[in-house]
Amino acid sequence: MSASRQAAQRITFLAAPTRLAEESRARLIARYGDHPPEDADYVVSLGGDGFMLETLHRLVTRARPVYGMNCGSVGFLMNAYGEDDLPGRLARAQAATLYPLRMHAVTMTGATEEALAFNEVSLLRQLRQAAKIRISIDGRERLSELICDGVLISTPAGSTAYNLSAHGPIVPLSANLLPLTPISAFRPRRWRGALLPGSAEIVFEVLEAEKRPVAAVADFTEVRNVASVAVSEHRSVAMPVLFDPDQALSERIIAEQFTV
Prior knowledge:
Tumour Suppressor Smad4, 2 domains
């Protein structure tokens, strides 16, 4: 891409509410200008992985390629921060398409709430007693009673986050699999979870819900006192996330499996 074409790129800069991110945004705007997200060719997200997730949720109704630059603490979904030749970096970047999970939660009062998750949907006990959860896959009961602190279903991109901390498997982006992982399972004690096809619909039913209340969390959305939660991949939403050529997300996910 020519220098004139690169210079014509319309970029939106979004920053986490930290001093480092906001100061970085100001410098980048002074150098490259700023455009509203609806008019932009690219969105540059300045922060850490948490702010990258916020950016993806913010843009879900008007998908734009998102390029993250790390001004936070973790940065698995981010590129290295740098102010030079940003149009060139954007032009050379490789895209990974992320598909979120869609959560449909029904509370004990019968209220319903839906939310999207680019990392995972998790069910977590609210009080001191363990949760009891029944799990069905595509209409077939697979686990009649899981006694646990919780359980989660993850996207491939999110498999390196909470899922990995709960000892779930890391899944390559191209695998079209969703890890289902228990959190501190008590019974069945030896159950370590499952790998499900991306087309699966997972239904969690909370048993003894009044005695053992459970909250459902989809990224930033928390629904308390749920009775049931249905989760499936939402393929009609596709978010392109950009990475420098030598730091593609698929490579990062593979490399994470060899980190000791």
